[in-house]
UniProtKB/TrEMBL annotation:
Pfam families: UvrD-helicase, UvrD_C_2
GO cellular component: cytosol
Gene Ontology terms describing biological process: recombinational repair
Keywords: ATP-binding, Helicase, Hydrolase, Nucleotide-binding
Gene Ontology MF, one: DNA binding
Name of the protein in its database record: AAA family ATPase
Record-linked Gene3D superfamilies: P-loop containing nucleotide triphosphate hydrolases
UvrD-like helicase ATP-binding domain location: 216-553
Residues annotated to bind ATP: 237-244
Length: 704
């Protein structure tokens, strides 16, 4: 690699600066043209936009600066949204220009598209923009040709357009450090694997929020980001290999490539907990994309109406299969059924529900049966509404509505003439008042699922997982609008939970990412089991591996790699940079241990330090020992930028810290068992630059 320093007399730097200034001028012109086109009603917004975008610096150097940058981008997006209803295509262009004005591009590739033809420069940025003749000024990082940058391969390389492979010759791959219209430096890469921007990005300290990795996506990561759209993609990556980052880049990629048909609300993202959800929530907005529907298993279960039950983490696949098998001969009893009641009124009696069920029970329990019964109940409800419209009391009520109520209900004022009109308007009143009853029928409120399930399983209660699965036996599928479902930390799900997700989202494509070595609870699915479940539900499963750690220094990577199987260990790597040797100490005396722990906490070093305890109980104990100087992170907390936090391993999932202190590395907490091994691997691998391991008593044999 030739790293070219910032030199005043460097002709390449001067030429690139001139190009940047020209592009910047174009961008300003495009922005001004669009904004002056926009409705004069928005004059205030226009000026705000110009003022704001001139002030914003795209600066991710420190956590504070990152936060400021992201907040500024969000404010800009809000101003742009003011225009939204009126000028969609202009607004989209404005959004792109505004993003590019912060950093017009981050790389350039020079490509010989055909032998003998002059080479072409392609500048790559977070968004794409063309000039007035539709010629690209900057191409979007997700466009086909940008693949040549991410392939990290000099000479002959290729990219695919609409499924067809195009071979080109890459003669130059140049990366830029640019802030607005200022080119600070550039790096020409001549050796495939080296990436100066990456190395400089990895030197930085922990930031409060995860950042987009658009400019430095590595080759193995790019295979996931740009993977063909397949039913299921399973990514197995070591700690810190960028799984979450790649997942978010993939969402941005899909939203771009399928922008005519895919919207963010058709993408569902499952994350481990609320702290993690907040940690990643600015990545997509900083790329100009909106966040997908983000949820945890717990919030998913609650949304489905199963929240009061045990979450079902110990439910076995055997139980679900038993539910499936025994439901084939199921005969619903009257007590399994429920009346439809709305606004305190019984609208369909149990006997009517029983009648509808008996009419179709010959089909056996399943989606066909459920659809037929549901339709029948909707019909019966409609008939009941017609009957109610003849009720004198309700008719009087309708005639007594004041003008506002009439307008709200009918969209106009009314003066019914004759019985027929009176009945018609009363029916509309009834429909509006009891509209929830149709929803109840759709949600299977007429069926006592718990009672049915308890009978089938001969047990006193159903877990959320069992309840959801039983409902799927009746309906076959759950969510019909979801097109992509992404599950991060998939190793923490049980087979039964995954069976529910696979079936609930049977029409969606899945991206599943995880690390088997980070399964911190007993009884979760192994990767072969995950693959098997989705092969059964979705036909095929493609798999990718990520084997390089970008988070942790080589010393820390070596420490946690020592905990995995020998053959895997040999393949793990860390991107080289300076590191500090881990500190590992065991103390026979409690007082000595506490002294060392307090010393570690009082001199944490730069950035954010986390004391990661193995369980919630240990968090409570440590919190008492360490006092108020150390803040405990729970579900509602945001991570601070610097200082020391105390949290459980469960809460630390997916997060990272400059310095990790493992305060309970004694044999009794981390014995030589596969589970303890994975827990320790997870705790250690949260560290970027420094690790301190302390044991009260004999040190865990895992680090012996
Ligand atoms: N290509 C890249 N360029 C720059 N930084 C990267 C790159 N890939 C990953 N990183 C950084 O490495 C760190 C780890 O990334 P991420 O959290 O996505 O990994 P992960 O595989 O999900 O981790 P884990 O499974 O251990 O929670 C983050 O700080 C991320 O920004």
């Amino acid at each position: 690699m030739d790293t070219t320093p910032n030199q005043h007399d460097d002709p390449i730097l001067a030429k690139e600066q001139a190009h940047l200034s020209e592009v910047y001028g174009w961008l300003l012109k495009i922005r001004d043209n669009i904004t002056s086109d926009l409705d004069s009603n928005h004059a205030g917004a226009r000026q705000d936009l110009i003022d704001m975008s001139e002030e914003v610096r795209l600066n991710f150097n420190s956590s504070d600066e990152t936060m400021e940058t992201l907040a500024a981008i969000e404010t800009l997006n809000n101003i742009i949204d003011v225009y939204n209803q009126y000028h969609d295509s202009n607004v989209d262009k404005l959004r792109r220009v505004t993003l590019l004005l912060m950093q017009p591009y981050f790389a350039k590739v020079t490509l010989e598209m055909r032998p003998g033809r002059p080479a072409r420069d392609v500048y790559i940025g977070t968004a794409g923009i063309t000039d007035e003749h539709s010629r690209p000024i900057v191409v979007d990082w997700r466009s086909p040709v940008a693949e040549t940058y991410y392939n990290q391969q000099m000479g002959p390389t290729s990219y695919s357009v609409d499924g067809r492979e195009r071979t080109v010759n890459l003669t130059l791959r140049r990366q830029f450090d640019i802030v607005r219209d200022q080119l600070n430096s550039y790096f020409d890469t001549s050796v495939a694997i080296e990436d100066s921007l990456l190395l400089s990005a990895l030197k930085s300290h922990h930031s409060e929020k995860l950042k987009a990795i658009t400019a430095t996506i590595q080759r193995e990561q790019n295979e996931v980001v740009r993977h063909d759209d397949v039913p299921v993609l399973l990514v197995n990556g070591i700690a810190g290999s960028g799984k979450t980052s790649v997942l978010l880049q993939r969402i941005a990629y899909l939203l771009y490539r399928k922008r005519k048909t895919l919207s963010e609300d058709q993408v569902w993202l499952f994350t481990p907990n609320a702290v993690f959800e907040r940690y990643i929530d600015t990545v997509l907005p900083s790329m100009g994309e909106a966040n997908p529907q983000t949820l945890t298993w717990k919030s998913f279960v609650a949304e489905q109406g199963a929240g009061e039950r045990d979450l079902g983490r110990s439910t076995s696949t055997k139980t679900l299969r038993h539910l499936e098998d025994s439901s084939r001969d199921l005969v619903l009893e009257p007590d399994d059924l429920r009346e439809i009641r709305c606004e305190g009124e019984v609208l369909l009696k149990v006997s009517q529900v029983v009648g509808a069920v008996r009419k179709f029970e010959r089909f056996g329990v399943g989606p066909r049966f459920t659809a037929l019964v549901t339709d029948e109940l909707h019909d019966r409800l409609d008939r009941r509404f017609t009957q109610m419209a003849k009720d004198e009391g309700l008719q009087e009520e309708m005639l007594g509505l004041d003008v506002d109520q009439q307008v709200e209900l009918f969209g106009e004022t009314i003066s019914p003439e004759g019985d027929a009109e009176t009945v018609t308007y009363t029916r509309r009143l009834v429909e509006s008042r009891f509209s929830g009853a149709h929803d109840q029928i759709e949600r299977l409120a007429w069926l006592r699922l718990d009672r049915v399930g308890m009978r089938l399983l001969s047990q006193p209660a159903l877990s959320a997982t069992e309840w959801l699965y039983l409902r799927l036996i009746f309906t076959d599928t759950g969510e019909k609008t979801a097109r992509f479902v992404m599950v991060d930390e998939v190793q923490d799900y049980t087979e039964a939970q995954l069976m529910v997700l696979a079936r609930y989202f049977s029409r969606a494509h899945f991206l599943l990412l995880g690390d088997e070595n980070q399964a911190i609870s007993e009884g979760t699915a192994t990767f072969p089991q995950v693959a098997e479940i989705f092969r059964e539900s979705h036909g095929s499963v493609d798999e990718c591996r990520l084997l390089t750690s970008y988070r942790s220094s080589p010393e820390i990577t070596a420490l946690f790699a020592g905990l995995v199987k020998h053959d895997e260990r040999l393949r793990l790597a860390s991107v080289q940079r300076e590191g500090v040797k881990p500190t590992i100490q065991a103390f026979a005396e409690r007082d000595d241990y506490l002294r060392a722990l307090r010393a570690a906490v009082s001199e944490p070093g730069a950035g954010l330090t986390a004391v990661i305890a193995q369980s919630d109980a240990r968090v409570s104990w440590l919190s008492k020992q360490l006092g108020e100087g150390v803040c405990v992170v729970d579900h509602d907390s945001d991570l601070p930028v610097t200082g020391v936090v105390l949290l459980s391993l469960r809460m630390a999932k997916g997060l990272e810290f400059d310095h990790v202190i493992v305060p309970d590395a004694q044999a009794e907490v981390y014995p030589d068992t596969p589970l303890a091994r994975r827990q320790l691997y997870t705790a250690l691998s949260r560290a970027m630059h420094r690790v301190t391991v302390l044991a009260q008593g004999a040190l865990t044999p895992l680090l012996g």
